[in-house]
């Protein structure tokens, strides 16, 4: 009987040790692929250059029109910084207010010849992409998700560029209707 009690005590102590060490290991982070998600990876200029998307440039007529749009050069400058892997604009502490103000001013000062639905919609998509990138940078992310978010922003800007070029080209090619 005494031997049986000693046996139960030893088994109980062994189980206690096993459970205590198992709980301790469960709380420690593992060293597998999940650690790459927990760190904030950096993106290089070469990483951004490898992103596959169609990039459109502004036509000379579009550049003339955009010179009269006061806040648009700020968007273009931030896109160029982004292409150089400088994400400081998106990491700023008061960035939500900055982005909201920038896009509100941008929407309110659209040149009259560009005040069309297709341009307004592309501005809204670009604004959303700006917010998504800013939001992603404030949380833990993987390099792949960051590159995807950057790609979405670059595609949105490229589509806006395409629509501006298309609208201006259509305006210049309009022929008068016969009476």
Question: Overview of this structure, please?
Answer:
- The protein is built from nine helices and no strands.
- Helix content is 69%, strand content 0%.
- The protein has two domains: 1-30; 40-172, Four Helix Bundle (Hemerythrin (Met), subunit A), CATH 1.20.120.
- By secondary structure, it is mainly alpha-helical.
Please specify the SSE layout and strand pairing.
Blueprint: H1 2-27, H2 34-38, H3 45-49, H4 60-66, H5 72-83, H6 88-91, H7 95-108, H8 117-137, H9 143-172
In short:
The chain has 179 residues and is mainly alpha-helical.
List keywords for this structure.
179 residues, mainly alpha, 0% strand, rod-shaped
For the residues shown, what is the average pLDDT? 84
Helix content: 55-70%
In oligomeric terms, what are we looking at? Answer: single chain
Strand content: under 5%
Question: How many beta-strand segments?
Answer: 0
Low-confidence stretches: 30-37
Which structural class best describes the helix and strand composition?
mainly alpha
Main sheet attributes: strand count, strand direction, barrel closure? none
Number of helices: 9
Q: Per CATH, what is the topology of the largest domain?
A: Four Helix Bundle (Hemerythrin (Met), subunit A)
CATH architecture type of the largest domain: Up-down Bundle
Number of domain modules = 2
Order of helices and strands: HHHHHHHHH
Radius of gyration: 28 Å
Overall 3D shape: rod-shaped
How far do the termini sit from each other? 116 Å
The CATH class of the largest domain is Mainly Alpha
